[in-house]
Task: structure prediction
Amino acid sequence: MKSCVVRGVWCVAVVVLACQARAGGGARRGPSAGAFDGKTAFTYVERQMAFGLRIPGTPAHRATGDWILSQLRTRADTVIVQEIPHGALQLRNYFARFQPAATDRVLFLAHWDTRPHADQSQNLGQQRLPVPGANDGASGVAVLLGVADALKQRAPSLGVDLLFVDGEDYGNFADSTDVLIGSRWFAAHQPPGYQPLYGVLFDMVGDKDLQIYQEGNSLAVAPEVVQRVWQVAADLGYGRVFVPSPRHTLTDDHVSLQRAGIHAIDVVDFDYPFWHTTEDTIDKVSAASLQIVGDVAVALVR
Ligand SMILES: [Zn+2]
Result:
């Protein structure tokens, strides 16, 4: 009985010490609370790849969409589903909102579909095959879901909207009717009075050999947003990845939003040798790259 009392006193002492340590600047909480986790984000790439090809109109596409929606419903304050009729296809955008009442808002977006044809494959025989979409599709979704994790842990300092667009990569970019479907739909069906401060598209951001140059249409329409994002990256020590010079000019989902008056930019590594080929597989993607891009995204809204 006596030894038991002594043990009890010891336990109380340990608890008091632990409380004191916690009170001393929150050190036990750790700097990672509310931070982006690249390793977890990588599991979101794995999960999407496990569904198979996310080609509109296929069971794998529908199952992936259902999974993304379920993930958002456990993290965001509100989630809006946009049903998009497109010929025989039924597509879906997801619009997940944090701090929905906040007037000052930032919009992040990525496409969640994958391309039916690997038309950039050097092997002509493979051009009719589908693109696996580990980087072109899954990486952007993984970053946005990782951001959702971070914002659920610790609310952002302003409103944040995460838009997952469907049908970005379905058809031929030359004729434009079967591409950027979800972003064009969103541009035409925005919430009443919606005017975010700016938008950032994340596309092909998981490449192990990550170098993100400034994109031409982003610089033309929203140079102040490019400046802000690249400055945040430099402040985080990522200046070698977010290279502060222009390179490619791309037709991507950000252009749909720009046409609707939103200052949106494209964060994209277009020097990806496996783009629109059958080789866009998960071995080309790394948690370290997702970490860098996710850190920048979260820092923008802290
Ligand atoms: Zn693509």
In short: The domain at 3-300 is CATH 3.40.630.10 (Aminopeptidase).
